[in-house]
Prior knowledge:
Layout: E1 6-17, E2 20-32, E3 37-41, H1 48-55, E4 63-68, E5 71-72, H2 78-88, E6 89-92, H3 104-114, H4 123-134, H5 150-162, E7 168-172, H6 180-197, E8 200-204, H7 208-213, E9 216-221, E10 224-227
Parallel strand pairs: 3-8, 3-9, 6-7, 7-8
Antiparallel strand pairs: 1-2, 1-4, 4-5, 9-10
Amino acid sequence: MTSPILSLRGVAKAFTETGSRIELFRDLDFDVAAGDFTSITGASGAGKSTLLHILGLLESPTEGRVNFRGEDVTGFTDAKLSRVRNGELGFVFQFHHLLPDLTVLENVLLPLRIGGDKTLHGEGRERALALLREVGLEGRLSHVPSQLSGGERQRAAVARALIRDPAVLLCDEPSGNLDTRNSEALHDMLAALNRDRGVAILVVTHDAGLARRAVRPLTLRDGRLEPA
């Protein structure tokens, strides 16, 4: 059996608020394997985004282990964690987080520039152009984010997340700021990426339509992940 790309073993997360200890989850085991398409729903405040941040190596659990390709990330240096996040994981958030002064093409190329990728002006640029064609933005290369619609901005954010060919795409309410038409278009795109490219997708969402697109729909309830 192929080892999971990301896994949680015995993970707990708690924090203190106004003198009270709040526990989001405890003794949680979870795997993300190649080609998975998993959705996680649940009530506001249940810990869905926190769970995604832990899987994305953006936040540490209170207890337990996070493994990346079978290796406990506790021993990773900050530099190694950054390399994994930039090279192996793609992120799409509710707000697109495009840099306002950069063009669409420059925004998509940004992860290569940050990572010091030597293909930035060659193969990397060609890959960015291909991704922008794939998401229907080939006519918007020189536009800045303020010149795009909400749906176009989110499609640009997806292209940026894919530029390093990540093993896992982590999405936090990716259609939360979109109208129905643009939401459906984004959902179609995510399903196609999983089907055609085989990229593993984990999406946290309140959108029942998007949750149903997943092969493995789950709900985070009372600190446990259960079939939705």
